[in-house]
Specification:
Blueprint lengths: L1 H9 L12 E7 L4 H12 L8 H4 L6 H10 L5 E5 L5 H11 L7 E10 L2 E10 L9 H9 L1
Parallel strand pairs: 1-2, 1-3
Antiparallel strand pairs: 3-4
Helix pairs in contact: 1-4, 5-6
Length: 147
């Protein structure tokens, strides 16, 4: 879900696949990679039908989505994945803003990506360190998430 969302958001970006040291990728969710972990567990639980799935195993780390987005787009900045009990706009704002303490970072692609059981959520956006029309605030983020 995160990879597909990034494809949609970044499809019109100029110089998309050129090395980009100024872009960080930061993601958040509640369940880490629990959904894939459960599917992978099924491939190793039955001793008589034991066949670990390498295609599932690689996704048992929530940060894999960061790597896929960064590699696809040649982003060379910070990549971080945070687990939070709930969507926490204040925490997201704080961590994204802190990414700009690195003077090389000019933009952050951030996302809340939740995929567990029947819950499938993606909220992804790009924030730059330049002044723009919309402020990056907790209230704005909550409005986007709850709408």
């Amino acid at each position: 879900m995160g990879f597909i969302a990034s494809e949609i958001i970044l499809k019109d970006k100029e110089n998309r696949f050129e090395p980009c040291e100024d872009t960080a990728v930061i993601c958040f969710n509640r369940s880490a990679s629990s959904e894939i972990d459960r599917r992978y567990q099924k491939t190793i639980s039955d001793n008589k039908n034991y066949f670990p799935s390498p295609s599932l195993f690689v996704y048992t780390l929530p940060s894999i989505v960061l790597g896929e987005i960064a590699i696809r787009n040649n982003f060379l900045g910070e990549t971080s994945f945070y687990i939070s009990e709930n969507f926490d706009a204040k925490l997201i704002i704080e961590i994204v803003k802190n990414a700009f303490f690195d003077k090389a970072t000019r933009q952050v692609l951030f996302a809340w990506i939740e995929n567990f059981e029947e819950k499938h959520e993606v909220l992804m956006s790009i924030v730059t360190n330049e002044k723009c029309d919309m402020e990056f605030t907790k209230e704005q983020l909550k409005t986007l998430y709850y709408s």
